[in-house]
Amino acid sequence: MSTRLSNEVVNNQINRMISFIENEGILKEEEMDLKSEENCALAKREIVSKELEKLTKIYEKRTNQIRKNHFIFISTLKNQRRIKMLNEEHNIVNVFIEELRKRMVQDLKKNGLYKDLLFNLILKGLVLLLEKHVYLKICEKDKTIAEGLLENIKTSYKNLTGVEVKLEIHKDWLPISSMGGVDLVLPGERTFFTNTFEWRFKKIIHLTMPMIRKELFDYSSRACYV
């Protein structure tokens, strides 16, 4: 039996090999296409992810800026309201103090009260200073009253301290707007002690301001107002 293959058999084997190679090529091509598609999809996902991350950061930044602007706007609005309210309160307090001042001036003029108070203000200042020579700076309108008190003041001072004091009316006067009282000035203008009604009135107002504001305003509703 001859071992030589016939042409037909050889051709069949060649065709099968060609078919096999073609099939393998197709499979490899499909694998490469699939791999390429997977790589492309992965690249697309990475691009989309990066763009989404950028957009998210931009959104968060803009959102934070909007919130910040809103907070600033609300804070500014509250501050403006608060400043307006404080200004209104300040004006009301000033009107109240001025009215209180006028009434105090009127009361001082009643029943010779001012004369006795001026006497005590001068004497108290002298006792605190303990000086032998003092000038009295008073309101010009009080000159006659003060001159009429000098001798009694000297006597009372000597009884209290055992020392005599020389008193003179100062060449200058307290401001016309002053409520009265006295500034005690030492020779040479080197020092003085203020004991005017204006000074005492301001001191009392300063000490009682919390109570005055509490009486004038309802602070329990302030939070709602602001």
TrEMBL record:
Q: Which GO terms describe its cellular component?
A: proton-transporting two-sector ATPase complex, catalytic domain
Biological source species: Clastoptera arizonana (Arizona spittle bug)
* Membrane spanning stretches: none
Question: A GO molecular-function term, please?
Answer: proton-transporting ATPase activity, rotational mechanism
Keyword Transport assigned to the entry: answer is yes
Record key words, sorted: Ion transport, Transport
- Protein's name according to its UniProt entry: V-type proton ATPase subunit E
Q: Tell me the lineage of the source organism.
A: Eukaryota, Metazoa, Ecdysozoa, Arthropoda, Hexapoda
- Reading the lineage from the top rank, the first entry is Eukaryota
Q: Which protein family is it in?
A: Belongs to the V-ATPase E subunit family.
